[in-house]
Amino acid sequence: MFYKFLLVFILVPLIELYFLLKISQFIGVFTTVMVIIFTGAAGVSIAKRQGYQVVNNIRSTLNAGKMPTDDLISALLILIGGVTLLTPGFLTDITGFLLILPGSRDLIGSVVKKYFLKYVKENKVEVHYGNQFNQNRKTYQKSKNENQSYKEDFIDVEAEKVEDD
Predict the structure, then answer these.
(1) Calpha distance 46→41 (Å, rounded)
(2) SS3 155
């Protein structure tokens, strides 16, 4: 996993630099720099506005007594999108806009949710419901098998690192 991240942090800036140089040959260095600054500023402004909307949605959902899972995923995607928009480059700007704009964010969020649910179904993560959070694992498993009627009042997730070969 470390080598994958290392590869990403080396390859992405090199690809961005290549595209910046190629595009600056066509539209000029000053125009390229101005486009980068404009997309960063516009993206951060949109991310801020979308972030406030999602936080308000989370508050209203929590006040209604429900778990705001979709809104939490949206908040995470907006955060990642805002960070990528601050990174200079065209590919990161495209990625950032895809993550902060509501239509594409909803599509990406549904994929993230399906991916997470797959991990839950394969027992790669452990999900605790309700007041069973503080119980030890054996007591939790016993009570889980005895009483399958859970409320949507609390979800806690523990993950385990799985090595990809």
Answers:
(1) 9
(2) strand
How far is it, in rounded angstroms, from Cα 43 to Cα 33? 15
Prediction pTM value: 0.69
Per-residue confidence (pLDDT) for residue 68, from 0 to 100: 86
Name residue 21's amino acid. L
At residue 87, the pLDDT reads 85
* Pairwise CA distance, residues 67 & 61, whole Å: 7
Tell me, what's the pLDDT at 139? 52
Exposure of 130 in the CB half-sphere (CA atoms within 13 A): 11
CA-CA distance, 5 to 67, in Å (whole number)? 32
Comparing CA positions, the residue from 12, 16, 10, 4 lying closest to residue 90 is 16
Residues of the chain with pLDDT under 50: 132-133, 135-136, 138
Residue 137 structure tokens: 């694992």
Q: At what angle do helices 69-86 and 90-100 cross, to 10 degrees?
A: 160
- Name the residue type at position 125: V
Distance of CA 160 to the CA centre of its chain: 19
Q: What is the CB neighbour count within 10 angstroms for residue 29?
A: 12
Where are the alpha helices (H) located in the chain, listed in sequence order?
A: 2-27, 29-63, 69-86, 90-100, 102-121, 137-146
